[in-house]
From TrEMBL:
UniProt keyword annotations, A-Z: 4Fe-4S, Chaperone, Cytoplasm, Heme, Iron, Iron-sulfur, Metal-binding, Oxidoreductase, S-adenosyl-L-methionine
InterPro entries: Coproporphyrinogen-III_oxidase, Elp3/MiaA/NifB-like_rSAM, HemN_C, HemW-like, rSAM, rSAM_horseshoe, rSAM_sf
Function: Probably acts as a heme chaperone, transferring heme to an unknown acceptor. Binds one molecule of heme per monomer, possibly covalently. Binds 1 [4Fe-4S] cluster. The cluster is coordinated with 3 cysteines and an exchangeable S-adenosyl-L-methionine.
Name of the protein: Heme chaperone HemW
GO biological process: porphyrin-containing compound biosynthetic process
Length: 380
């Protein structure tokens, strides 16, 4: 095991819960499907991993992601939440988020979440249309969502919905329907992700065999543009490339990543960023469990970023925020003038109309948003 006891300079904690009922065809996340027998071993391993930090430590944000955290049986779910919040109690006004699968959200589960202090639920809706949910291999029906959201909101009012666009066969009208249905549920926050075909997924294999066709790039762009337009019209702020929030409901945990704040992360595949070092745990769930049980290190990669690298990465990540990168923020973090550090790249991107620079900051232009990956890569 990484025997060092880490200094507690972080205020954000991520817990990876690597269990799902079934692996959806497009998903390449770290998880096991149909291996609920491993849950007790996982809880024991996680507890052991968290012991490397001095505690209890009061934190600003806790985020349970996966996998599907709510897939855990209720007793284990409660055990997990208690174990984490005992070690990392939430500060007043802090954010406690959990990713949830719609069909798991029974009154009983919502009760357990609420009692544990959870104050934000991120619901994996993905679509309101059964044909697309079937393509995505999700287990719920579109028509079930509004009632599930109302049930959650009655106890935990801060609900975010995840939607996917660019599903094979999806039209712009289909996507508009999903956006309208999502808005009608009254969420505080929406995340919209364009479907990607990742190496090693069933979707990519099916695409190669001609069984699935990626949607046209121009249509995908139209879908993204429609989301930006409709959600802004409804009073949501487009604050990060894929994220929209009602005023005051930006995801504090994710902002910590984009702002370059330190964070601790636990579980298989989890990546932490502490004292300038990024450590990533092994992505093998079984490997994580057995290494933890043997007292061996679960860290697969550790990289201490050189200052130059850290600055480039800060730009790469920070420009995901639509507010962009503030010169004062950059100066404060690195003691260097951003306009001097990346003068040539900034000027070129400004000339191309992809970046806007004013006296305070640089940020993506409305055109730059659509080519964000290309723009941000210029800083690496
Ligand atoms: S439910 Fe989410 S995490 Fe689980 S397999 Fe499907 S997409 Fe992946």
């Amino acid at each position: 095991m990484d025997s060092m006891t880490h200094t507690n300079n972080f205020q954000s904690v991520y817990i990876h819960v690597p269990f799902c009922r079934h692996r959806c065809g497009y998903c390449d996340f770290t998880l096991v499907a149909g291996r609920d027998d491993l849950i007790p071993r996982y809880l024991a391993a996680l507890e052991r991993e968290m012991q490397a930090h001095d505690q209890p430590l009061v934190v600003q944000t806790v985020f349970f992601g996966g996998g599907t955290p709510t897939h855990l049986p209720i007793v284990e779910l409660e055990q997990l939440l208690k174990m984490v919040t005992r070690r990392f109690p939430l500060a007043d006004g802090g954010e406690f988020s959990i990713e949830a699968n719609p069909l798991d959200m029974t009154e009983e589960v919502i009760d357990v979440l609420h009692s544990a202090g959870c104050n934000r639920v991120s619901l994996g809706v993905q679509s309101f249309q059964n044909k697309h949910l079937q393509t995505l291999e999700r287990d719920h029906q579109g028509g079930e969502i509004p009632e599930i959201v109302q049930r959650i909101r009655a106890r935990i009012p801060n609900v975010s919905l995840d939607l996917i666009f660019g599903v094979p066969g999806q039209t712009l009208v289909d996507w508009e329907y999903d956006l309208e249905q999502a808005l009608a549920c009254g969420p505080t926050h929406l995340s919209t992700y364009g479907l990607t075909f990742e190496e090693g997924t069933a979707f990519t294999t099916r695409k190669r065999r001609g069984q699935l066709t990626e949607i046209d790039e121009a249509l995908e762009r139209e879908m993204y543009a429609l989301a930006i337009k409709r959600l802004q019209e409804e009073g949501f702020e487009h604050y990060e490339l894929s994220n929209f929030a009602r005023p005051g409901y930006q995801c504090q945990h994710n902002l910590a990543y984009w702002n370059g704040s330190p964070y601790a992360a636990f579980g298989p595949g989890a990546a932490s960023y502490l004292q300038g070092t990024r450590r990533t745990n092994t992505r093998s769930v079984l490997g994580y469990l057995s290494r933890m049980e043997q007292g061996a290190s679960v860290i697969a990669e550790a990289e201490t970023l050189e200052k130059e690298h850290a600055m480039r990465e800060a730009l790469y990540v920070g420009l995901r925020r639509l507010s962009g990168m503030d010169y004062a923020e950059f100066q404060h973090r690195f003691g260097i003038d951003l306009q001097e550090f990346a003068a040539e790249t900034i000027q070129r991107l400004v000339r191309q109309g992809l970046l806007a620079a004013d006296e305070k900051r640089i940020r993506l232009t409305s055109e730059g948003i659509f080519l964000a990956n290309r723009v941000m890569a210029e800083f690496l």
